[in-house]
Amino acid sequence: MQTDDFWKIIDRVHAGNPDDMDAKCEALGAELRKLSEPDLRSFIEHFDDANARAYDWKLWGAAYLIHGGCSDDAFSDFRATLISMGRKFYERALADPDSLADVDYDEDSAFYEGYQYVKNDVAQERLGEIPKRSKPHPARPSGVSWEEDDLPALLPRLSRKFE
What we know:
The protein is mainly alpha-helical. Helices cover about 60% and strands about 0% of the residues.
């Protein structure tokens, strides 16, 4: 499975369930159950790569503003939810986290816990295990760390929207 194939699945699932994360999880599970074992393993690797790529300080700042604080677990949920929104949404958020100010969602919809577990549930069911990552998850977020007082300058639009 190539990166484009991974995103086609994510985009298709999102298009069919844009406003219902529970339904989106069910649809993703159904899509993953159709994959061959090698493609399922590849999908998981692509998902984990996308998750690791989004492990970024500036994006964490955006999540912090949207949620009024953001633990490591909440940031994990936030990154998985970004992935669930499709490639364009995800890429735009990574390129410009302040662009998330254009999104009208309540804070809970940005921090859905569960989407990231679907791949593991299907892997456990189909493979009898959750495949190990070929690359470790980054120990620290990429980019420059921030203090709360830095966020208005770093993410001005989000800061105004969620002040």
